Amino acid sequence: MLENPVKNIKHKERSALFPNVFPNTLSTIIFYVLTYGMLFMELNVIFRRRKGAEKKDRGSLRVMLITIFLAFFVMNFLLRNGFGLLPHNYHWISYIGFAIVIAGLTFRWYSIAVLGKYFTGVVMIQEGHKIIKKGPYKILRHPSYTGGIIAFLGVAIATNDWITLLVFLIALWVSYGYRMIIEEPALIEQFGDEYRNYQKETWRIVPFVY
Predict the structure, then answer these.
(1) N or C: more exposed end of the chain, with fewer CB within 10 A?
(2) CA Rg, the chain, in Å?
(3) pLDDT truncated to tens, each residue of the chain (210 aa)?
(4) Angle between helices 143-158 and 162-191 (to 10 degrees)
(5) Between the CA of residue 58 and those of 11, 45, 206, what are the distances in Å?
(6) Residue 1's pLDDT is what?
(7) Cα 168 off chain centre by
(8) Alpha carbon distance 122, 115 (integer Å)
(9) CA gap 173, 104 in Å, rounded
(10) Cα gap 59→183, rounded to integer Å
(11) Membrane-spanning residues where (predicted)?
């Protein structure tokens, strides 16, 4: 029985090329489709514009875009140079990452669908704006962020690279953290005690934690 020649390639040699970070061609294709398909969908949805809306974003969208794209840039650099990669006998972790990406995107898009016309890519108050308290919003104030964070962490896990995971954790903390710092005061300004009471009844992004 012939041995798989890929298994005989040294870890450093395999990790020097981005496509060869993954155990086979199929997993490489899945990674690219999920990652860049996700980025395309995200860019499409976050640039939605609503008529009659009062913008209160204070640069949070810009911060989010810069930090996320920097994270992807660093990820590409790390993978092409083999920094932080786990040994290839752990390549099964990539498939766990793919599953996490799909789960995160599913939850994010479900949350966006529940929010409906009130979802926008920037922080703004729309005409007739109201607080949605159904579906995931019964428990979480920002479930679409929860889904986005899960999906991005899934991408990092799929790379099989611990430095990439750390970079994504920092980028997500900065981008989503700043967004919520801007968004919640804007909602308090608009809805007053109604939103303050909603804050007391719910968690931001992680049930029973935060």
Answers:
(1) N
(2) 20
(3) 444 333 444 444 443 344 456 767 777 888 888 888 888 877 777 666 555 445 677 888 889 889 988 999 999 899 888 888 887 777 788 889 999 999 999 999 999 999 888 777 777 777 778 899 999 999 999 999 999 999 999 999 998 899 999 999 999 999 999 999 999 998 998 899 999 999 999 999 999 999
(4) 170
(5) 45, 19, 25
(6) 42
(7) 9
(8) 14
(9) 16
(10) 11
(11) 29-47, 59-78, 90-110
What contacts 38, CB < 8 A, 6 or more positions away?
Answer: 101, 105, 151, 155
Any idea which residue has 């900065």 for tokens?
Answer: 174
The amino acid present at 4, given as its one-letter code, is N
| Domains of the chain and any CATH numbers | 5-201 (1.20.120.1630)
Q: Count helices and strands (H / E) in the chain.
A: 7, 2
Question: Which residues, at least 6 apart from 7, have a Cβ–Cβ distance to it below 8 Å?
Answer: none
Q: Is 52 exposed, middle or buried (0-12, 13-18, 19+ CB in 10 A)?
A: exposed
